[in-house]
Amino acid sequence: MPLPKLAVPEYSCTLPVTELEVTYRPFLVKEEKLLYLAMESGDEKEMINSVKKIIKDCTNVKKVDDLPIFEIEYLFLRIRAKAVGEVSEFKLTCPDDNETKVDYSLDLEEVNVVVPDGHTKKIKIDDKIGVVMKYPSLVQFVNQNLKEEEASLDDLFDLAAQCVDKVFDEEEIYDSFTKKEALEFLEGMSSEQFAKVQEFFETIPKLTHTITVTNPKTKKESEIVLEGLAAFFA
């Protein structure tokens, strides 16, 4: 006789930038095992496939590749919080003396994606030419959260080239080009022009939360900013 199946609750949320309505459920043990095995392998393709499978299995999202990196982080945090507990316990170091540690309980449901003031995907390179950027997606999520290697300069240029969605001038919009052509376009910019592209990445929306702690020794209040998915896994 087969064993009974356990009921798995479902939840819903609205993704913070694309405003997509998503239903989701907690990780199951088999899915966490899949992710850990992929991480242990160190194989990027395997990690990408496992993340894609987990999001597809745990949510109603069909086009995982279309989600920006910060919304993948947001979803993963929600899914994991429902699986292991919505309150995460931290031991934080007080910034004022960089020594005293305090305990802190954080409700992960309060963590959100923050969009900096002035952030835009449309960038004017000069008086005639501009670019429309798109956000880093699944591959960048894996590189940022699951791999241990530091990004090289070539990696950063490669990322920028992948994120060029459209180029436009006074007469035409260019939306059909290769990554090689995008790289050549970026490399042909002046330092001042490329700084505008860098600003897009520097102000990209982020999964972040600011915590206020009081040092029990000095009685001084300080702010600690937790940023990126890994920061919320105590």
Features:
single chain; 234 residues; alpha+beta; 24% strand; globular
- Principal-axis shape: globular
* Helix/strand/pairing category: alpha+beta
Low-confidence stretches: none
Helix content: 25-40%
Number of domains: 3
Could you tell me how far the N terminus lies from the C terminus, measured between alpha carbons in angstroms?
41 Å
Give the SSE order as H and E letters. Answer: EEHHHEEEEEHHEEHHEE
| Number of separate strands | 11
Radius of gyration: 21 Å
Q: Which strand order do you get reading across the main beta sheet? A: 6-7-8-9
Task: Describe the largest sheet.
Answer: 4 strands, antiparallel
- In DSSP terms (H or I, runs of 4 or more residues), the helix count works out at 7
Q: Indicate the mean pLDDT.
A: 89
Question: Can you give a write-up of this model?
Answer:
This protein is α+β, with helices and mostly antiparallel strands and 234 residues long. It has three domains: 11-85, no CATH class; 88-114 and 206-232, no CATH class; 122-202, no CATH class. Helices cover 35% and strands 24% of the residues. It has seven helices and eleven strands. It has helices spanning 29-41, 44-58, 69-84, 138-145, 153-162, 179-187, 191-202; strands spanning 11-14, 21-24, 87-93, 101-107, 112-114, 122-124, 130-133, 164-168, 173-174, 206-214, 221-227. The strands form four sheets. The chain has a four-stranded antiparallel beta sheet with strand order 6-7-8-9. Strand 8 and strand 9 form a beta hairpin. Helix 1 runs antiparallel to helix 2 and helix 5 (153-162) crosses helix 6. The longest helix is centred in the first third of the chain and has 16 residues, at 69-84.
